[in-house]
Automatic annotation (TrEMBL):
Compartments in which it is found: Cell membrane; Membrane
Bilayer-spanning residue ranges: 30-53, 65-87, 107-125, 145-168, 202-226, 247-268, 280-300
Name of this protein: Olfactory receptor
Source organism (scientific name): Chrysochloris asiatica
CDD domains noted in UniProt: 7tmA_OR52I-like
Keywords, sorted A to Z: Cell membrane, G-protein coupled receptor, Membrane, Olfaction, Receptor, Sensory transduction, Transducer, Transmembrane, Transmembrane helix
Signal peptide start-end: none
Membrane topology, as annotated: Multi-pass membrane protein
Amino acid sequence: MMLALCYNHTMEAPASFFLVGIPGLQSSHLWLAILLSAMYTMALLGNILIVTVIWMDSTLQEPMYWFLCVLAAVDIVMASSVVPKMVNIFCSGDNSISYNACFTQMYFVHAATAVETGLLLAMAFDRYIAICKPLHYKRILTPQVMLGMSVVITIRAIIFMTPLSWMVSHLPFCGSNVILHSYCEHIAVAKLACADPMPSSLYSLIGSSIIVGSDVAFIAASYNLILRAVFGLSSKTAQLKALSTCGSHVGVMALYYLPGMASIYVAWLGKDIVPLHTQVLLADLYLIVPPTLNPIIYGLRTKQIRERIWGLLIHCLFEHSNLCS
């Protein structure tokens, strides 16, 4: 009954919120804008290049590359949901965001992060099948199975995010509309409510812990089996090749999970210990660093993609030089 009273309110919602940016670091906003702009440009170019190469090259139509293509698309959505507005705040000081835009941003940011963790699990499963059951690879990972996995991952993210967005958006906002953050992070928004934000914050913490915890457990189990199979190979060359392929995936997972979980638990458990500007910076970098570095890691460590990218770039350069001449 009390929960219903918290969310069924008749107070008029604020027309807009105001994003502070990074509290305490306003003097560094211009430099942060330059850094974010450079990283966002790299993220867009790199991920678009990955999607284009995989989409155009028929030799890359394998499950691993399909999941990588979807991961690149999700990275574009995740970075684009927050970075343009951040740069606008840091450069021009235009820190207002409408009520509906704020909750739309919140939904896409957190849904994209939930999709990304599911994709990392799917990619770990793909590597497990490729290394431990190579003769059954194409029979197990059919296009129908891959599509089904992608749909389940997306539905899981929607099921998780929809109640959270509903709970936060239906809180009564009758006081300050200044968000001490650089994007509409749900805990920062919920703190402005005139009602107790604990239900939505607890739902977020428990839901994130269950989703990430279960995904990490299955990923760890997959890589445990993979490493056993790899070290059981008689050929050192085969061992190194398998470890190299898995190394890029492990690097991407470390980039995603370590700062992501640190951001969540610091906001909950370390809010009185860790300075606010550090909390906000951690949450910001968590959304832009993985999309920036994922294409570099995969581009440098995956031979097929590296060769196709160079081929595409050389082809474009020759086409351009021929047109000029």
